[in-house]
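Hey team,

Filing this mostly as a record. A colleague (T.K.) asked me to run one chain through the structure pipeline before their review meeting, and I want the input and output archived in the tracker in case anyone asks later how it was produced. No errors, nothing strange. Just documentation.

Input sequence:
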Amino acid sequence: MRISHCFNGDKLIFNFFPEKLDRPRNPKIGSHGEFMFRFSDGRDFPSVHPDRLALVAIMNTLPFVEETLKIGWPVSTSFIDATRIISRIKIVSESNDCPPVKRNIVGKPALSFSGGADSTAALAIMPLNTEPVFMLRTESNSRTLYDSDAALESCRKLSRLGYQVNIVESDFEYLRTPVGFPTDLSIATPAILISESRGFDSIAFGTILESAYGTSGPDYRNYSDSSHFRLWSKLFDAVGLGYSLPVAGVSEIASSKLCRDHPLGVVHQSCIRGKWDKPCLKCWKCFRKSTVMAALESGEIPEISISMLHDSSEVRKRLLEDKPIKHEGVLAYSLQRVGGGGEVVEALRLLTRSDSLKTEWMEFWYPKSSELIDASYRVYSVEKLKRHLGAMSSDQISELESWKNVHDEVRQERLNLLSQLLNYPSIIERAKKRF
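Output structure:
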């Protein structure tokens, strides 16, 4: 694949040309594809160091390249050397005589901001000069449930609180089928592109503990030893930017708690399908968040959560088809602390091991994650995390690090029970509906 770029007034446009071997990876693109970036307020797009342009090119085309990505502009030798960590493909450039970009020693942090609970929690424990950068998906005729209304309102609220919020529009999500990020960190490409003009020295993400340390799935992992961390931290460093995960030691439970208790919490909304203050109340995220918030208040399971169990095809799909359920531990925590719900919720409690799983550690901060916070503000953020959440005890750390959630015969039996109750209402319930 070959890729080039051009600046056209308020737009930065990337054009790429798949070769024959590349095309099976994304047949809809054909012989030519493009994606662009522009400020939402129409300002001209700033100049960008060639190495950073190349990193953005990689982040948005990597899944579609079969053998070689040919960068159509000069980059530095040190950047090309850094890309050798990508073992699946080879990256070459027009020439390697460009001076490398250096980290801004008096810079400020950026945060890739989504408007949700996790990125809001990250902002709450980052320095006050942090600049949120929101990627606004360009409108298209492509069918999608995404609605930017709530996230844009979050940005407006942050602006009124005095934050410098940067909104950059892009259409790179339409490269993929289904619509979405080509790589999981593509969301940060606007922040990378404006990092020189805004003086950023690092870019933070709202990645939480379940995603960083694997507790959304079957096994705990040490993220610092993962191939994902080695890849992206090295490539960010190669373009003079820190790769920072300030809430990597914070569970979804703790991030929800932070947003509930911290003044910044008023700016967030987790649902990306509904309007501001009107979540869709149909999606998996709405189901999880409504149950979590009820648990934090030690109340009854909300009626809307019960309704979604029965009426939302997405919620039912996640519960019945994911083995194990993504963020299953979060559900276990919540179902341990909410009452009611009837036989279906009891079956879900059984499936998620709510009767035996230790989950108190989810309320606290995992101190080993401090190494993932950029050194320029690590001390500041650690103090905030300790103050707002407190650090896990040694026993709680052991419980986290021994996390296992394997789908075995016992779990399948419990899943069968839940499936039966969801798909075949009880005789009493059917009688009520009939009469």
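Quick notes for T.K.: DSSP finds 18 helices and ten strands in the chain. The chain has a mean pLDDT of 94.
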